Amino acid sequence: MTSSKAPWDEMKTPDSDYTVRYVTSPGDVTLCWGKDVQGQCLFIVQLEGDHTEQFRKNATTVNAIEVDLRQLPEPGKQGLILTLEKHVDRDLFHGLCQTLIGNLNGVSDPAAALGVA
């Protein structure tokens, strides 16, 4: 899969935390492209509520992608954060993220979104 322009191309590497660009409007389930301080590509599923138990119960590993659930700065929100570990796999990661965007389209329940992602 070759894409001429990925969503991370125009994002600046932040001095702290990470930079995001929204894919969907903010709500109970919000999707974002992101970039962290190391310049790594991120895909973030922002979820309303606490989903720690569900995440731990259904935790999975993906080769070359770090999957983490973190508390976000906004009160009552967590983020399922997918971090691409190797820049060389960026086109594949972009394709995976596009698939997730399609699969999460119309999902408004945060627990269901975590199950899909």
What can you see in these coordinates?
- With 117 residues, the chain is α+β, with helices and mostly antiparallel strands.
- It has a single domain (18-116), classed as 2-Layer Sandwich (Phosphorylase Kinase, domain 1), CATH 3.30.200.
- Helices cover 24% and strands 31% of the residues.
- The protein has helices at residues 52-57, 90-104, 110-116; strands spanning 18-22, 29-36, 41-48, 65-71, 77-84.
- It has a 5-stranded antiparallel beta sheet with strand order 1-2-3-5-4, covered by helices on one side.
- A hairpin with a 6-residue loop joins strand 1 and strand 2 (29-36).
- It is globular and about 35 Å long.
Largest sheet: 5 strands, antiparallel
CATH topology category name:
Phosphorylase Kinase, domain 1
Structural class: alpha+beta
Shape call: globular
Q: How many distinct helices?
A: 3
- Kindly provide the name of the CATH class: Alpha Beta
Distance between the termini: 21 Å
Low-confidence segments, ≥5 residues, pLDDT <50?
none
Q: How much is the radius of gyration in Å?
A: 14 Å
What characteristics describe this protein?
single chain, 117 residues, alpha+beta, Phosphorylase Kinase, domain 1, five-stranded antiparallel β-sheet, 3 helices, 24% helix
